[in-house]
Amino acid sequence: MDEFALIRQFFTGAQAPLSHVERFVGIGDDCAVIPSSQSDWVVCKDMLLEGRHFFSDVDPFLLGHKALAVNLSDLAAMAAKPVACLLGIALPHVDEPWLSRFSEGFNRLATRYDCALVGGDTTRSTEGIVVSVTALGTAAAPHVLRSEAKIGDDVWISGALGAPKVALDLLLKQQESELSASEAALLAATRSALEQPEPELNLALSIKPYIHAMIDISDGLLQDLSHILRASGVGAQIDYERIPIHPALQSLDATRIQQAILSGGDEYRLCFTAAPKYRSDIIQCAVNSRSEVQRIGRIIAGRELHLVDEKQQELRNLPQGFNHFA
Ligand code: ADP
Ligand code: MG
Description:
The protein has helices at residues 3-11, 16-19, 60-77, 96-112, 163-176, 181-195, 201-207, 221-232, 254-263, 279-288; strands at 32-34, 40-49, 81-91, 116-124, 130-139, 154-158, 211-216, 235-239, 270-274, 293-300, 305-308.
């Protein structure tokens, strides 16, 4: 049973108290939407486990940053403005210098996005560190949902992809053997994309009037775009050559680049769809929010995701995205 089937089977049953409330959005999008009399509440939770989502020797400042950043990225995916967060943390022992750095990284990002830390829970763990953050934001309807992509929309992504996956592979390799000089240089150029992602909130809030569907890329472009397609009941044709590649990857072989940009997780970039008439508005929003955006294809009828090369030939044997229980 994969991660998504598990959630469907065991955890979708208790949404009843809200399920008939107008504008309620439950399990299945980047955040839930809890309708309110003014702006609606937008809520999400993401958890990081030592040994699975971060290495034991990670700089705690960066871990504190990332624990909040991945949640702010889910708020961005709903074009919601952060308001507050809750921090759950389980620690095997109290390490004050570690906690000082962790909280500095967390608090600095929280302050930058006006996201108040208003509660949480702290406990001793028997093994390893667990960090679980809940983030709350607000957004006015109509909401930006995975289910709103329309046939004829452009498909866009922000930023350039691939660096987090390359950094992760190198950090794993470094545990087994020493890296060559060129590998060490590549790690230095890609590492911050993995360890210190910047949530694209400014871009998300500014493009909201122009877009239909959006998701943040946490499990790989193909898998996350597939969530939009499934939820919207549409297909997509993506031009492989248009997908922006992180500049540090240019010298890598084509297969490795393809793996990294199509199925690499931890990107926290936005993938969104919008009607072609808004192309220049979206580009202007990106300029204003100092982000980069790129049109990579379009939404089509059907249910399939077609990836084509510059000759419009379909690419086959595509890598899969990340799934915890696949
Ligand atoms: P994301 O990558 O945006 O964080 P996920 O793919 O992790 O989203 O989760 C898919 C959906 O399932 C989300 O709406 C999330 O809130 C929901 N979900 C995940 N785990 C659980 C759970 N244990 N109970 C209820 N809902 C869950
Ligand atoms: Mg998400």
